[in-house]
Amino acid sequence: MGLTISSGILVDLKENEPDSYEGYKVIFENINTILIKNGVEPYQEPVVMERTPLQFGGFPYSFLHHLRRFLAHAWENEDNENWEPKPFSSEEDPTGDAVLEDHYSYMSSHLLTHSDAEGFYLPVELPEVLFDTEKNPVPGAMIGSSYSLLKELKSLTKHLGIGLDENNMVTNIDELNKIISNEGDFWIEILVCVTLMDAAKFSIENNTAILFN
Questions:
Q1: How many CB atoms lie within 10 A of CB 150?
Q2: Which residue from 72, 75, 174, 211 has the highest number of Cβ atoms inside 10 Å of its Cβ?
Q3: Tally of CA atoms within 13 A in the half-sphere of 119 that contains its CB
Q4: Tell me: the pLDDT tens digits for 46-73?
Q5: DSSP letters along the chain, please?
């Protein structure tokens, strides 16, 4: 079992799982109630798309923590122009990192403030990460923005050696795939960052929510 990241959930479920489709429609109704309570216009998840819904799957849930730790350290050193990331020890558990713990407490990051295994990012500009309520529950409890997620991920690309063009397309995918295949420095962080960027771009381009599952 590993983390599945998808976008276009209602399109997929409407065609393949009608019972689940009805259940997710209720979830999106709850999401809209939360948006309205926070002064955000309601969001309409598409039920028809010209493109095939997106789905990635396979890497362990724990991989997210490696990228989150990297983000925390990058932000901790954002005023240091000479900062160069150094690989972490493979024996260190990223969830026990003190810098990451500090940045978790701020609850300002859409990458950090999100469930590891479930939940949504919406293609909507949000004032902050939003939380569900007992009356209007949402899987994962926290609702992030695909726009904010993409912005945070792009801030890491130069530190991870990920090249981007003006359309946010990765320009050195062969080089990155080689690093990942050889499990080189920051290979986990690169894998997760590129995967999430692809999901965020798809979400924004197609007006579909990202779903962790």
A1: 21
A2: 211
A3: 20
A4: 999 999 999 988 789 999 999 999 999 9
A5: ---EEEE-HHHHHHHH-HHHHHHHHHHHHHHHHHHHHTT-------S--SSPPEEEE-S-TTHHHHHHHHHHHHHHTTT-TT----PPPTTS-GGG-HHHHHHHHH---TTTSS-SSSEEEESS--SS-EE--SSS--TTSEEEEHHHHHHHHHHHHHHHT--B-TTS-BS-HHHHHHHHHTT-TTHHHHHHHHHHHHHHHHHHHHT--EEE-
